[in-house]
Amino acid sequence: MLSRFGKARTAFPGGCNIGKRPVDMHIKALEEMGAKIEIDGYNIIARVKGKLQGKEITFGATENVIMAATFAEGVTTINNAATEPEVLDLIDFLKKMGADIEIDNTKVIITGVEALNGCVHKIIPDRIEAGTYALAAIITGGKLKLKGINLSDIRCITNELETIGAMVELYDGGIVISRKNGSIKSANVATDPYPNFPSDMQPQLMSAMCIADGISVIEENIFENRFTHAGELRKLSS
């Protein structure tokens, strides 16, 4: 919005109370590119005269910087860029529309363009949603076919599921998840940034661990309040 109209206004993020969600990296990145940022109560107001300027960014906010840099003047380089499947899918989408973006390991290089074109793009399946359904199958002892999912996109999840006793099978068009014979196995799992086990899958995994054999340990390294669901599981005699 800022790149296109020169001004944008948005509220601070809210959502579930799992921990702090600072936006300082997003603000700093836009300021580096020439935007003037004003905080008005619960709102963030950004303005830019003319175009945003291409810069070298070495901290977070990968997707926002990519979108802002698409219409910026010059070249923007993002070092240590996020490489989640969703980020790569966004890049693929923008390139189909005419954006000039190159990827070199964890470096993303964007050369600003004057305009984008329309395109047809199919968004990749949500890996957290897929992992949630997969854990439901493991907990219930069922068998689930996930159509259209790319195994490489959810390896960070299925690796842990196999550890606790899941069977992951490939088929033409997706994967099949089921529980191997016997009960769910205990495990020690830590959440960390991609490509490690995601924090967004931690509550679902804890639910499975409640009926697993033995003692499991879950270490949360992303959000400081991500264990609030434990109290609800205790109400179910966990």
Structure, described:
With 238 residues, the chain is of the alpha+beta class. It has two domains: 1-111, Enolpyruvate transferase domain (UDP-n-acetylglucosamine1-carboxyvinyl-transferase, Chain), CATH 3.65.10; 127-237, UDP-n-acetylglucosamine1-carboxyvinyl-transferase, Chain, CATH 3.65.10.10. The protein has eight helices and twelve strands. It has helices at 2-5, 24-32, 62-70, 85-96, 127-140, 155-163, 202-209, 229-234; strands at residues 7-11, 36-40, 43-47, 56-57, 75-78, 100-104, 107-111, 143-147, 166-171, 174-179, 188-190, 217-219. The strands form four sheets. The protein has a four-stranded mixed sheet with strand order 4-5-7-6, covered by helices on one side. The protein has a three-stranded antiparallel sheet with strand order 1-3-2. It has a three-stranded antiparallel sheet with strand order 8-10-9. A hairpin with a 2-residue loop joins strand 6 and strand 7 (107-111). Helix 3 runs parallel beside helix 4 (85-96) and helix 5 runs parallel beside helix 7 (202-209). The chain starts with a helix and ends with a helix. The mean pLDDT is 94.
